[in-house]
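HUMAN: Spend a minute on the protein record below and explain its fold to me.
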Amino acid sequence: MQAKYFFILISLSLYTLFPGSCSGKATTPPYPQRIVSLGPINTENVFLLGAGDRLIANTNYCVRPELARKKEKVGSVMQVTIEKIIGLQPDLVLATGLTQKLQLRQLEAAGIKVVQFNQPASFSDICEQFLKLGKLLGLKDRSEQIIVHAKNSVAKLQKLTSKLPGQKVFLQVGAEPLFSSVPTSFTNDFIVLAGGINISWKQKSGITNYEKVIASDPDVIIIAMMGSESGIAAKEQKKWLSMPVISAAKQKRVFVINPNLICSPSPATFVDTLYAIASLIHPELSGQITPD
């Protein structure tokens, strides 16, 4: 009889500590614990939220932060291996606007939760997506704190650059064809928020040509292209510098920057990149502009 009561007491204790364990039903964590990211921005945001330990896989293009390189790879941004993702048994897949619709349907058909984040069109979009991810992962407070800090840093920079004359900027993000930052892309905010004037502000498409750029006579040219490691960006820089008719070439203000900084910003890395670009557009502020 005493053994029977002892068993009941032990069972009640276990149930209190681990609800559902004695009923045979496994408890489900309230927020995703096994995440697969299909794009660099998503990956950076997961790490920025402090949830990098929940990320079990990402793409070959997910290289920031350094720990992202060590995660299991499931393919490229445009093409992933569905079988591999399913085999990893994720409870959440973070897709992008470049994820193929067929692959999205395949993942959902396999019973996997998929949340898609399209390419942000502005710094504001970047912050909104980050907040959405924070809520999704149960880290709303942290996401809000990071956004407030990022917005304060941007406002601080704008206060400094608003007192300076505008500089015409050509931000090149592609070579064949020649491709420019346009107002429908968040890359435009790197120029505008840094106190520059985007020479392509009237364009809807980023496709442009050398004649248009020369006619606009930019004061600064910034080159940020994927594949720069192959030397394409350096060749473009040399080409622009050989055109002394352009103010940027005359003043030797043609710069190459890491394309990863431009193409996949979290709220935090957006601020870091913005400050770096501002120092190129307004070198007179060098030493005065550092993010908090």
